[in-house]
Amino acid sequence: MLTIWQRIGLTAFLIGFALFIATLSLSRYTLTDKVLSETVSKEQLDAIRSATASMHGKTYTSSFGFVADYRTAIARLNEAYKQRNETNLLIPDYAFLVTKSASTGFFPENSQLFFWLSLLLSVGGGLLYILPTQRELPGIKNNGIYHSPATNRGWIGIVIGTFLIGFYIVLYFFPEYLTNWVLMFDPLSRLLNGGPASQWFVYGTLYTLVILVMGVRMLIKYRHSRYQQLRTLSVMFFQTAFAFLIPELLALFHQPAQDLKNMWPLDYSFYFDYRIDEKIKAGTLGMFMLVWGTALWLLGVPILTYFFGKRWYCSWVCGCGGLAETLGDPYRQLSDKRLGAWKLERIVVHSVLVFAVVMTALVMYTYLSGQTLLFGFLDSNGVRSVYGSAIGAVFAGVVGTGFYPILGSRVWCRFGCPLAAYLGLVQRFKSRFRITTNGGQCISCGNCSTYCEMGIDVRWYAQRGQDIVRSSCVGCGICSAVCPRGVLNLENDSITTRQTNPGPILLGNNSFRIQQ
């Protein structure tokens, strides 16, 4: 039953969220010479001006009509170039910049009013909805998660999932329809990095805000566990400082913007030619970033994972994991615990890792040799383009986050993240980390399996007193936090003493051991 403050908070959030969405339709669009001169290259200005002559001075009431006419005009121009074999003159995609600059009317002049109204209502309402839950008794209880339409693939979850999927599709492939949001974030962008906002700045800001707000929810929900409190504060800190503020400040000082906690192969473009050249050109700091990023995956992963398991990154540092643990927490129980899902997971995630290694090897071959083809048919530019769109955009974004309310909160981490696969291999075979169990204490309540976001049937291990050494385990510790009997513990021990076979099952004064 919602309290009066929760009802007020939910109402404020919905109003703020609706206002934020509505801002996308509030601009008018007019193409002028000034707009074109500010957004397109001087070499192509005359050609674009001539191709779009019918649009000049015409006011459009929506971005859809404006973008459609602009793209049609440019497509005709490029088609003419192709027919004349003048492919060197082809016009690149300026649709986002042109649409943003062409925005006119009441909204661009008052974008900051809409920014603060939607921000304060959404964030304030969300916190007002979350904070009263601290009055409830701490700990996990029967809260109807499998009966709520919001947390068990009901209509609310489907609506949220549909919105997230649509948001990522538009963000990655049609950003010209989000230009009003970008206008709203321009002042903040100029404050932090000295330049106008892009769709990626908007995304990074929203990403960070969501982790901070939903992080407060995590702090309250798991306030009975000091480990969860510290872990949540850690992901909030690393996302805000390392993933958001530091890259923006580096850009402000004209240095290569880089998330210093991110690493290859998750940061799949780290060894792309333009990023390497950017770092070399930046001098000492740029070379430090290149060496740091290389050392992090080459030395940091095996050393830290040996001592702490993959949790040091996946559960304490990673931004993808941070979003899954905060925004995705209401859906963590939806992960598939069946054996078939585990088999599919292992095939897919390790296939992505192999894809990332091959793609990076091709990119480095091209960078060092200047040749784009290997063996006469492997095109490094084509391979990296496919990886970027299929894995970096569709899998990591559209599926990885958009499917939270359908497949659980760690879809990307389980099935797609190449870094998680790399960390998992080290954890499985060369790590002191393990989750130990005390089968004699297990009452088979199922809390551990229910709340495992990685699709591990923890209860199966707990009933047998068997340590959990699955490579997919991110060591989030939620299974231990929700166990009413203290059966599960996160430990670091010598790998020589690890017990990978089932332990004895006690029956009265006797015992027997399951043979594998």
TrEMBL record:
Residues 433-461, 464-493 form the 4Fe-4S ferredoxin-type domain. The chain crosses the membrane at residues 12-31, 113-133, 154-174, 200-220, 232-253, 285-308, 347-367, 387-407. Keywords: 4Fe-4S, Electron transport, Iron, Iron-sulfur, Membrane, Metal-binding, Transmembrane, Transmembrane helix, Transport. InterPro entries: 4Fe4S_Fe-S-bd (IPR017896), 4Fe4S_Fe_S_CS (IPR017900), Electron_Trans/Redox (IPR051684). One of its GO terms (molecular function) is 4 iron, 4 sulfur cluster binding. Pfam families: Fer4_5 (PF12801), Fer4_9 (PF13187). This is 4Fe-4S binding protein. It comes from Spirosoma profusum.
